Each structure stands twice: as structure tokens, then as C-alpha cells.
Protein 1
Amino acid sequence: MDALTLLQQRNSASKLCEPAPDAAEMAEVFAAAARAPDHARLRPWRFRLVEGEARRRLGELYAEAALRRQPSLGEAELDKYRRQPLRAPMLIVVSAVVQQHPKVPKIEQLLSAGCAAYASLLAIEALGYAGIWRTGDHAFDRHVMSGLGMLDNEEIVGFLYVGSRDGAAKPLPEVAASDFVETWMGL
Ligand SMILES: Cc1cc2nc3c(=O)[nH]c(=O)nc-3n(C[C@H](O)[C@H](O)[C@H](O)COP(=O)(O)O)c2cc1C
């Protein structure tokens, strides 16, 4: 697939199944991520792979965090959180370690990590796999972050759910560039 076709036709997959990319393929994905634009080369992005049984431990962490946020949650709701990471054979927790920098504010470091996440999704699709970027309450929950071993100055930018597309791809939406592009002619 050529680069423009990939960029113009990338399509998230909410239903994912085995197989996920193997270690050699993930090395290609990380090489793509590492080419994200990055002011001052701070390399703010971090990737944590969660596969196999570790997905159950992540689900437990989600449930624990949810209970701390909302102590009245019942078992059925907690189970929903427990099952979330099982929706794909592989999850990649993408985060940004945000440094104090005289020229690179936090927003730029988060955007850079977001670009790395997006580059990963594109690479995953280029390799014939599929994925979807999700967040949700636990992406902003410090209990989840510390359970994942994150630093105080680290923030989650997304959970990439990765695997093979289960079922047909959803149709691409019609988008007219004129909805979001204009030519500025000056004051
Ligand atoms: C920062 C970010 C967070 C997102 N969080 C969620 C989410 O929690 N749940 C969800 O269904 N989609 C989420 N999405 C949207 C999906 O990743 C996806 O873009 C959307 O389903 C549209 O599909 P498409 O990318 O194929 O157009 C998020 C996207 C971004 C960029």
C-alpha cells in the first residue's frame, strides 16, 4: 500500500481478534513511532505493551481505579472494566513524559507523543493489522498511571488496541476538505 493510500484510507477497527503483530513487526512499528515530529528531540513518548494475562491485570487495575472514583459501583459494572483490555490481543499504552523545557511547553510534548501513537496505528495498518485509539476515564486516572509504573510527570495519551480486524471494515466517512480548509488572505 502506498503512503497516500494508507493516510487517506486508514480505518480504525473496534472489533479485534488474534493475531497481533509479532515482535519483529512491532520493531517496525516502534521505528515508525520514533519518527514522530519532536521539538528539541525530547523523545517524550513511552510505549507499554500489554498482552496475554497482563491484560487481565490491567483490567483489575481499571476496576480498582473505577471503585476509587465511584465507591458505589456494583460487580457488574466492575466486570465491564475488567473485561475492557480483553477486547484486543494487544494493548499499547502510549504516554508522554513531560519535561520542563524553556522552549517546549507541555502541549507540544503531548502532541508529539500523540503523533507517535498515530504513526504506530498507521504502521500497524501498513503491516496488515488493525487497531483503534481509545482513552476513557482510566486514561486520566493517576491510580491507573501509577499501577502502570508511570512517573509523576507522565501522562497517558491513549490506549492503542491492536490485533487483526474482526469483520468487515466500516465505511469511510465522506469528508470535504472545504469543511476545514480555508485560505487566509491577510488582515
Ligand atoms: C485522543 C483520542 C481518544 C479517543 N478515545 C476513544 C474512546 O475512548 N473510545 C472510542 O470509541 N473512540 C475513541 N477515539 C476515536 C477512535 O480512535 C476512532 O478515531 C473513531 O472510532 C473513528 O474511527 P476512524 O479513526 O476510523 O475514523 C479516540 C481518538 C483519539 C484521537
Protein 2
Amino acid sequence: MQIQKYSIEFQDSSFLQLNKHLASVGYSMIFVLVDTNTKKDCLPLLQSALSDYNLNVIEVEAGEIHKNIQTCTNIWNALMEFQADRKSVLINLGGGVIGDMGGFCASTYKRGIEFIQIPTTLLAQVDASIGGKLGIDYGNVKNSIGLFKNPSAVYLNIAFFKTLPRAELLSGYAEVIKHALIVDKSYWEQILNCPNIDKNDWKVVVERSLQVKKSIVELDPFEKGIRKSLNFGHTIGHGVESLSLETDHPLLHGEAVALGMITELFLSNKILGLSDEHLNLISNFIIKLFPKYNLDALSKAEVLNLIHQDKKNENGQVCFTLLEQPGKFKINVHVEDVLIMEALEYYNNL
Ligand SMILES: NC(=O)c1ccc[n+]([C@@H]2O[C@H](COP(=O)([O-])OP(=O)(O)OC[C@H]3O[C@@H](n4cnc5c(N)ncnc54)[C@H](O)[C@@H]3O)[C@@H](O)[C@H]2O)c1
Ligand SMILES: [Zn+2]
């Protein structure tokens, strides 16, 4: 399978580029997938930028709990009812949920129609919209059904952050921290020196973080090696996130990744010799930024069970990406269950 080339436009003129793109391709119909929030907060901006075009809007409920096969059925039904043909395009206007699910629906509708990502959250701009991973949650396991396929283009615009709730901005910031920690020590030090995230220039943050993600996925599009570095914080993070979605206190993706990074830093300390100093410094930085989650509400056995089901595992063994030091990762590290339990305990006691 070949990875299709696509452009990422990141500038104030990104809508101008989008207009040019639509004019040059001449799609038969243009669909825009939104959720209840992006319909209200983001669609007007897009509609005014694309006033020359007839946009057919498909709306779904917002939130991770709707990233499932039932919502896909609704999206495919809508495309059928509008009689979308194979020259149609689906513009996914929203966060990672809309991007992952919309891309999945577009790629499977009539064996695949084109789709364009317009990510509207920090998380989606620096992470979910880049790298071609598409899919939905299934049977309690996150992102367990899906495929790799690149969009025709990605258009980024930080103007969307104006309406983004603070918790969502913070959620995206977890991925920014992850990018810095795995490959860019000086970027991490910069982040460490800016504990008040409101002081960030988002244009700079998005551009730098995007570069990290882009360069990694271009080297390893199908996650055979180096791309696994991006899983730092996600092995324990995904397990806890999946379970939390069934409780009254569901975690946002980035909140779960923040917890995942702290627990996996503990593992890094025990297994790869990450220094005590780094473990304490980074854990304290993260714990101050993100709301502390009460792990007692979850069954540790179920967390472990979900970690064992993770699709990143190989030969029945749980595979982690851990850090030797900031900016230096190691992939495919096997970890015993007892140590995973200790890591959860470490987080609980912070
Ligand atoms: N494909 C990948 O490589 C990849 C990488 C990381 C995460 N993900 C996936 O991304 C998802 C998380 O993405 P997310 O954090 O963007 O979640 P999300 O799509 O649920 O968006 C978060 C919330 O913000 C709202 N929203 C979005 N943009 C807004 C705006 N500009 N103004 C106001 N409200 C807005 C949404 O309606 C939603 O309620 C998860 O499903 C995760 O699995 C995928
Ligand atoms: Zn993530």
C-alpha cells in the first residue's frame, strides 16, 4: 500500500488555500461533518470562507462516547440520502473524534471518497489530523476498528481555539508535552519554563509540535518502528481512558495521556534508569497542570486487562515506549504487570 501525498496548510491564508483546492478539483458535492459544538462554533467561520460553495452539513452528537459504529451508520445513511457519489468530498470539521470517524466513514463509503481534515482542537491540530490513522471505538476498546489513510489535505487555523473550552486546550497540550519529551529536549525545557499555558503563542506551539509528529510519521507511516515513540503515555493512558468513559467522570484523551505519561515515567525510572530528578520534575510539572484523577474509582484488574488488549502489544506481551531521558525514547519495552500496578500506585500517591 502506498502512502498518498497530501498537503498541510498552516497559515492565516489556509482558507484561501482551501478555496483554491475546491476550485481546482471540482468535487461533485461537498459534505461537511460537524458535531453539535463545531456546528455552532466553527461552521460559521467555514461557511463564510466558502461562501461560493453549497455545503451539505452532516451533524452528529459531540464526544468520544459517540465515536462508534452507530454514529458511522448515521453518517453513511446521510451520505446515501444525499446521493453522494464517488466524486464527492467530506470535510471533517472538528476535533479528533470527527477527524478519525469522518475519515473512516469517507474511506469506506463506496470504497472510499476523498476527505479533507479541518481540525478545530489543539489536540487534533498537533496530533490526530496528521499521520493517517482513522477509526472508531468498538467493544470497549479505543480505536479498535479502523485503517490507515491520508486525507487529501489538512487545513489548520488557530482561529478555532477562540471558542475551545480550556479543558480541551489543556487536553491537546498533553500531546504537545509528549512530542517534546520523546524527541526534543530543548522544546521540553521551553515548555517547562512556561508553566502558564495562556502565555503560549499557539501558532508557534502548533507549528513546532506538528513538525515533530509529521517527521516521525513520514519516517514510519505504518508504525513498524520509530512511530511507536508517539505511544509514550498511551499504553496505560488508553486503558484508564477506556474504563473512565463508563464512569461518571470520563477523562478527556489528553487528561488520560497526562496520567499515562506520569505512570510510564515511573516505569522509565525503574526499567531504563530515567533519573529520579527527571521523574520528579516532569511528574510534578504534569500533575500541577492537569486535574488529578481518582484511580480508586476504577478496577485495577480491568485496567490491566485493557492494557493487555492494546493493539500495540506483540506476541501477547505488553509493549511500552519509555524514556531514558527527556528527548530519548526506547520502543518495545516489555513490562511486568506487577510494575504496572506499582506505577498506578505511584500516580495515586502524588
Ligand atoms: N488519529 C490519530 O492519530 C489520533 C491521535 C490522537 C488522538 N486521536 C483521537 O482524537 C480524539 C480526541 O480528540 P479531541 O480531543 O479533539 O476530541 P473531540 O473531537 O471530542 O473534541 C473535543 C470537544 O471540543 C469540541 N470542539 C471541537 N472544536 C471546538 C472549537 N473550536 N470550539 C468549541 N468546541 C470545540 C468538540 O465538540 C468536543 O466536545 C480521540 O478519539 C483520540 O482517539 C486520534
Ligand atoms: Zn494521543
Protein 3
Amino acid sequence: MNAEPKGPEAARLRQRKFSLLRQFHFPEDLLPGSRPLTHRRCGKPTCHCASGESHPVWHLSFMAEGKHRVERIPEDWVDEVRRRAQAGRAYQDALREVLTANAELLALRRKQRPR
Ligand SMILES: [Zn+2]
């Protein structure tokens, strides 16, 4: 992907991101989202999609401030976005597993505590 986005909103998001990165040390390029490919019909009655195969459309869908967002992805970004989203899921799975293991260890520690 090319240049970083500009403007106050981009600056605010980058600031938030880097303050979290400083606290937690996680990989910075991860993306949320899954199932990036959908198909749609453009609505033109003469288009091949009216009767045959519909057009592939690439999306990144994610939650931001409690709202579900869907952003279109340019086709030449698809491989990178897919790779970063897979890494994001692997990271989330690993984090969940670590938290669960910690909770189970805490429970064991309580059971094993001498009374
Ligand atoms: Zn069409």
C-alpha cells in the first residue's frame, strides 16, 4: 500500500494506535475482519452480471466505536489486506488462548493454595 493517510482523523488514529503499541508491544500491521470477498450485481440490465456471474467486490469489515463498518478494498491491495487480516485473527486467537490459560492457572493456584 502506498502513502500513509493524512489529516486530523488520521493523526488521531495514529496517536491512539501508537499509545497502545507502546503499552502492549503487539505487531502494528494487523488488521481485523474476515471474509473479504463478496459478489454483487451492478444493476445495469445489459451487463453480464444480470444473467451470469456477478462482480467480485473486496471489503474490509470491522467494528469501530461500536459500529459495524465496511470499507471497499482496491483490488491491488487484496493480497496484502488478506495477509494482514489472517495475521490479525491468528494474533487474536493466540491472545484469547493466553488469557484463558491465565484464568485456568489462576483457578488451579486457588485450588492448590494451602489452607
Ligand atoms: Zn454488472
Protein 4
Amino acid sequence: MGVSCVKCGKEGEPITDTLFMGKLEAEIKAKVCKGCWKQWEGMRVMVINEYQVNLGEESGRDLVKKQMKAFLNLGEAADTAKLQENYKPPQ
Ligand SMILES: [Zn+2]
């Protein structure tokens, strides 16, 4: 059975890997398809570089989580202008 994805708006392949996202894990797997999660994984690297996120800090992990929710349309708004400016889709 596919997952009705809130990011791409399509019925997509479900995520089967463990994401280590704690309590967000179930929500992500219920609402996001595998392809869109892969896209986020690429984006996450950019977020970490762009904002010079220190994942050893709570605030850094929070920022990444916020950007993830915004990217995946999980219902939290975040300022992604800086990223969209620099985002180049894979060729
Ligand atoms: Zn999707």
C-alpha cells in the first residue's frame, strides 16, 4: 500500500527505513513518500551547511527539525527563503 504524500501530493512508495526521528517517525512515515524523504536528505545537508548548524546542540537539532517540517509540508512554517535562493535541483 502506498502513502498519500503531503509533499508531492501523490500516492507514493512508503518509507521502510528507520529514520531515527523519535516521535516524528510515525507522522513522517504516514505522510511522506520515500522519494520526498530522499529529497529532504539532500536538503538536510544544505540546511546544515547554510545555517552552520551544530547538531551537538539542541538549538541546532531544532532548526533542522523546523526546516524539515517546512520542506515536507508537515504543518510548520519556517523561513526557507535563504535556502530557496540557493537551491539548485539536481540535474
Ligand atoms: Zn512525495
